[in-house]
């Protein structure tokens, strides 16, 4: 989306906690660079003519600090949720958006050591992100990444839809075939087509084979996808 905004130098006091809190990502250099790059004021779509703080430039800079494996998992996470969100046909607009999924991923990256990002842990990270999304829905609380006192899910007022969505996400986190289908569909433009691996299936149980299939597809994703897909 393209919106008018007012650039502000410095870093807002309400987000200063982000500078000093303990984290494993991003590094101190990146934090300093981001906070020196300023922020924006964006008008709200309300009759009161209020403004909100926008950290879209800071988020873009954060995305550029991700490792290729983190990029791939984030892309897979969004692909899985968005693909099945359309299949479920639930009125979830305002409950799950790309921004919310990106927020969940940022929180996960922040508390995960880079040593734990390997090709062997790709599926673990994807499943963990789905679990964290389900937990946010369960407690109806998703802290904004730069201002955690702000709950992004605070104004969701449809418990039935929330419960249905929670159940679907929870089931999805256990369904490797559904993950593969979603990621593979999102990857068609990159010519990634994966069939069942008979060699793997013959040597390990079916569940393990499906998990390996998800890992293979995620790892096949390009890590230099456009930032606007984030």
UniProtKB/TrEMBL annotation:
Chain ranges of the Mab-21-like nucleotidyltransferase domain: 1-64
Keyword Transcription regulation: no
Pfam families: Mab-21 (PF03281), Mab-21_C (PF20266)
Cofactor(s) demanded: Mg(2+)
InterPro entries: Mab-21-like_nuc_Trfase (IPR046903), Mab-21_HhH/H2TH-like (IPR046906), MAB21L/cGLR (IPR024810)
Swiss-Prot/TrEMBL keywords: ATP-binding, Nucleotide-binding
Domain Mab-21-like HhH/H2TH-like span(s) in chain numbering: 73-158
GO MF terms held by the record: ATP binding; nucleotidyltransferase activity
Keyword Nucleotide-binding: yes
Bilayer-crossing regions: none
Protein family (similarity comment): Belongs to the mab-21 family.
Annotated protein name in UniProt: Uncharacterized protein
